[in-house]
């Protein structure tokens, strides 16, 4: 893939509207871009700078640390963050055993709900790898931010049909990379994680992962046991924001999955540009 510092990563919003509304300062955007050049990072566009500033509550020093971490994690983990194509074997393997969706309606406080649901499909458990699942999850996160830089996320994992065959393909070392990215490198805000239809077979995995999870993230992670109604889940996410699979008002996950896959496919130009832009850092370091 050709690399170029001049590549423009497209977004579905203009930073100017947020400057004019007083939600971000022009001088902070300029400071972030100037700092990138000074520290041999690819110079972010104004839109990219706004994304990171919003995720860090407009704290410029915190924003700079987050940007550094994002570049470091993404460029050192190509199996998760590069070659992000929906037609790829890794993504297709995940889609064979998992529904994914962005719920079209935002919550009352403007949060976007992302759902990943394991399918009951015998024999396909061995067709996927954890890196593909994490790649697709990160693509979902970026798709949600594409036109909404103030985005906050509620991530829902429905693990009802997870089996031991699925779990044996989960590598803690790879999960650690994803957890660090969520906590320290994401250009958006994580509001909550919900694990619904929780099963005891996942407890050992959680025990391994918990040391990597910061207290504030662990405190926003909620578990809803299998075999019970989802009343505990509805206390956090009312049914009006959920697909009908969860007793909600929106179309079933199978339908929303198709819509989401179409959205991600239409964004392949964005994912390719973002990768080229990111790796222009490698060219700068070689000079």
UniProtKB/TrEMBL annotation:
A single MF term (Gene Ontology): phosphatidylinositol bisphosphate binding
Highest taxon of the lineage: Eukaryota
Listed name of the protein: CRAL-TRIO domain-containing protein
CDD domains named in the record: SEC14
Domain CRAL-TRIO: 102-254
GO cellular component: membrane
Organism: Photinus pyralis (Common eastern firefly)
């Amino acid at each position: 893939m050709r690399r170029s510092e001049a590549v423009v990563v497209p977004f579905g919003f203009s930073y100017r509207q947020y400057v004019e509304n007083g939600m971000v300062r022009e001088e902070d955007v300029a400071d972030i871009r100037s700092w990138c050049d000074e520290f041999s990072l690819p110079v972010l566009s104004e839109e990219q700078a706004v994304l990171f500033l919003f995720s860090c509550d407009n704290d410029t020093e915190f924003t700079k640390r987050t940007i550094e971490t994002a570049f470091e994690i993404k460029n050192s983990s190509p199996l998760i963050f590069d070659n992000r194509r929906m037609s790829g074997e890794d993504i297709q393997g995940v889609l064979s055993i998992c529904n994914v969706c962005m719920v079209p309606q935002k919550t009352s406080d403007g949060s976007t709900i992302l759902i990943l649901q394991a399918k009951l499909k015998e024999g396909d458990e061995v067709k996927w790898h954890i890196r593909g699942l994490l790649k697709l999850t990160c693509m979902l996160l970026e798709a949600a931010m594409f036109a909404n830089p103030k985005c906050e996320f509620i991530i829902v994992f429905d693990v009802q049909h997870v089996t031991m065959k699925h779990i044996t393909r989960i590598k803690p070392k790879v999960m650690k990379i994803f957890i660090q990215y969520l906590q320290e490198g994401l250009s958006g805000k994580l509001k909550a994680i919900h694990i619904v239809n929780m099963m005891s077979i996942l407890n050992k995995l959680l025990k391994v992962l918990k040391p990597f999870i910061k207290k504030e993230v662990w405190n926003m992670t909620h578990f809803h046991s299998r075999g019970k109604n989802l009343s505990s889940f509805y206390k956090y996410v009312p049914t009006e924001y959920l697909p009908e699979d969860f007793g909600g008002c929106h179309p079933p996950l199978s339908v929303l999955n198709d819509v989401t896959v179409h959205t991600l496919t239409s964004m392949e130009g964005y994912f390719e540009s973002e990768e080229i832009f990111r790796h222009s850092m490698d060219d700068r370091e070689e000079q």
